[in-house]
Amino acid sequence: MTALTFTFVVLAMSAVAGFLGALTGLGGGVVIVPALALALGVDIKYAIGASLVSVIATSSGAAAAYVREGYSNIRVGMLLEIATTVGAIIGAVLAAHVTTHVIAIVFGSVLLQAAYQSFFKSEPESASPTESDALGKRLRLEGTYPVNGTRQEYGVRNVPTGFGLMFMAGGLSGLLGIGSGALKVIAMDRAMKIPFKVSTTTSNFMIGVTAAASAGVYLSRGYIDPRVAMPVMLGVLAGAFVGTKVLVQARVRTLRIIFGCVVLALAIEMVVNGLMGKV
Fold first, then answer.
1. Cα separation, 42 vs 38, whole angstroms
2. Is this prediction's pTM over 0.85?
3. SS3 132
4. What average pLDDT does the segment 232-252 reach?
5. How far apart are CA 211 and CA 203, in angstroms?
């Protein structure tokens, strides 16, 4: 295809990725990497480089809106970002020594776990708020978020477990270019007992910093091509803006189903193509 056609196709796919990324807390990279690598034949490391740029754009587009609406927990995000940033730098360094087939298989495996969590381990939307444990209270991580016109209080538990999972999430971000939103949402939602909407919005707040930590490494190695990264960034930013408007009104169960369907389809595709050596 021509360069102009390629740009418009990437722009359209990126808009969809940004919309889903803002809606689910995945950051857009979870869609962009396989779309570029499998549908358009872009080398997966260049796709990851463009994805990292798009993740920063998603965070910039979505985080401000979520903070303004009172969904994101800034204190939790800044604490956990310490672990993800260190992990992201380590993952980006390791990426140069791992084959693309292995990266694709690891990527798919992570997404399969995320889909399983979303489909089969959901709590009811009206579940009672969790009270913070001793460490959560000491760090003052509890907060409130809007529910039907009122502010619902919630607590934060299992901070060390969440911190460890965030280190792993950062490593996968640097290695796979996905913003590690899937693991971040699971860590906050499942391990730390933070409500799903707060988990997704706080993930969006965090992913930009995580991606920036590893994007510098990819840039220094020449894996960020402006011809790919620019339309990806613009498309994702537009999609993320729309996604923030939809999430505020969406039901938690609906968000979980969307999250699960997107990552399941991509997981199967990436694992199969990784095993067959097509990426």
1. 7
2. no
3. coil
4. 82
5. 12
